[in-house]
Amino acid sequence: MTLWEALAVLLAGVAAGTINTIVGSGTLITFPVLLAVGLPPVTANVSNSLGLVPGSLAGAIGYRAELAGQRHRLLRYGTASLLGGLTGAALLVTLPGSAFEAVVPVLILTALVLVVIQPRVARAMAARRAAGTLPPATDGGPLLLACIGLTGVYGGYFGAAQGVLLLALMGMLLPDDLQTVNGIKNVLAVIVNGVAAIFFLFASSIDWTAAALIAVGATVGGILGAKVGRRLPPVALRTLIVLVGLAAVTKLLFF
């Protein structure tokens, strides 16, 4: 890795850490950059998962005020996320690399669609909440628990737009405000990325230089995202994510 490539990976980590804390989908920034500097897709994915853990932790700590009184939920949801993340990581290293290369463009395009429609989903959920049509359970019930587990599987396998999925699901099934939901989302992302990273330490190939650069950048980004996230224009963030994601799909399909 050249100096300029290393700088690009570091800056991608900063961007990913910031975006993950605010919205999610930071993997759509780091993953294509890792591909661009020459890492194979599976190595890029596992190195990225490991590198993003400190950033997710920094973002979760930054939202600690919003997490007051959420211990019961975090235990329930965290258990589902842990089991799901472990399952997804196992699938990544068990399935052949060709399967990952084939499915990643589909996952990225799906994630991009979720990124684009997320504001509309949020508005629809707000309308349902105002109309009193949301489920009465304050923890979302078995449906939300199952969905969080499945999102954990997806996050352990690839993870792009994991945060967007969690925000949409919890926004639909929980009566809380978006900032509280975002704080819970950040903790669940730590758990999924963390358990997947631990699994990868023993079961897959990691580019430690790339992982370290992303870790440093993502930590800085996580701190920035928690401090200034509410002031950043969501439209600009989503536009950046979509552009980088389309570039990743183009590279995977045609180069």
Helices, strands, pairings?
Elements: H1 3-22, H2 27-36, H3 41-62, H4 71-94, H5 97-131, H6 141-157, H7 162-173, H8 178-203, H9 208-228, H10 234-254
Brief write-up:
Helix content is 82%, strand content 0%. By secondary structure, the protein is mostly helical.
Order of helices and strands: HHHHHHHHHH
N- and C-termini, Cα separation: 20 Å
Give the number of DSSP strands: 0
Report the C-alpha radius of gyration, rounded.
Answer: 17 Å
* Helix count, DSSP H or I runs of 4 or more residues: 10
Determine the strand fraction and express it as a percent band: under 5%
Give the overall shape: globular
Low-confidence stretches: none
Helix content: over 70%
Fold and architecture overview:
The protein is mostly helical and 255 residues long. Helix content is 82%, strand content 0%. It has ten helices and no strands. It has helices at 3-22, 27-36, 41-62, 71-94, 97-131, 141-157, 162-173, 178-203, 208-228, 234-254. The radius of gyration is 17 Å and the shape is globular. It starts with a helix and ends with a helix. The relative contact order is 0.25.
List keywords for this structure.
globular, single chain, 82% helix, mainly alpha, 255 residues
